Amino acid sequence: MNITKTIMTIGIASAMTIQFSACKETQHENPLLAESQLPYGAPDFSKIQVTDYLPAFEAATGDLMQMFTDFTGMQQPDASSLLKARGL
Hints:
Blueprint: H1 2-22, H2 53-72, H3 79-85
């Protein structure tokens, strides 16, 4: 059962990646990656296009992986070093 779910998840992720990379249009600023002036830093949802999601996901996972790398590289983590690794 779990192998079926795993295979389906990989298939869906592959299909989404192909779809996103095939939808290249004119270059514009990605509202998911841009600094927002809206309340709470929310992106301008009216400007989001389908092609904006994959770069935003890649950026978010890259930041998360860097945070984990910083965390696991610590000899003896404490509260202040954890906050520092998160950039807080």
